[in-house]
Amino acid sequence: MAESLRQLKLIGDPLNLDGLEPLLEMGHVELVLDNAVTSGPAVDTAPGAVSETRLILDLMTQVELVNELVLETSFKLQKAHESLLVMEKEIFAQDLRLERTKDLEGKIVELETWLDAAVAENTLLKRPWYKKLFNWRY
């Protein structure tokens, strides 16, 4: 696996079509007509015939178009993947906040109980001395 990755890095982009234009433009076809061999650029033998070079050029154009679409889709997928990673981090952070909130709710109830007891004790201690003396129950 690692070796094939190294080979791909040495080769470069397998979809890169640079350098093929001269080959396609200067390509030639040999036609055999009645036991005679003709060499040179493709010649139309029929009025509606399409040259092989033209077909190859059209095919290469379509391949380049597909390559561009693949690169664009790859870019969009990479951006979507990055967005998903960001959302995943946000969800994880929100889960942590939710757990902390549940812990804090328990502490809030405990502190409210303690505060009510402190307020009740404070009201008892703020009574005048004569009420304290006659109601010494606390």
Topology:
Blueprint: H1 2-11, H2 21-26, E1 31-33, E2 36-38, H3 52-125, H4 129-134
Antiparallel strand pairs: 1-2
Characterize the structure shown.
This protein is mainly alpha-helical and about 140 residues long. The chain has one domain. The chain contains 4 helices and 2 strands; from the N terminus they run ααββαα. A two-stranded antiparallel ribbon has the order 1-2. The mean pLDDT is about 80.
Helix content: 55-70%
Q: Tell me, briefly, the overall form.
A: rod-shaped
Strand content: under 5%
Mean pLDDT: 78
Extract low-pLDDT stretches.
none
Order of helices and strands: HHEEHH
Given helix and strand content, the structural type is mainly alpha
Oligomer type: single chain
Number of strands: 2
The strand order across the widest sheet is 1-2
Query: Over all CA atoms, what is the radius of gyration?
Result: 42 Å
Give the N-terminus to C-terminus distance in angstroms.
83 Å
Outline the biggest β-sheet.
2 strands, antiparallel
Number of helices: 4
Q: How many domains, as an integer?
A: 1
In short:
The protein is mainly alpha-helical. It has 4 helices and 2 strands; from the N terminus they run ααββαα.
Key features of this structure:
about 140 residues, mainly alpha, two-stranded antiparallel sheet, about 70% helix, rod-shaped
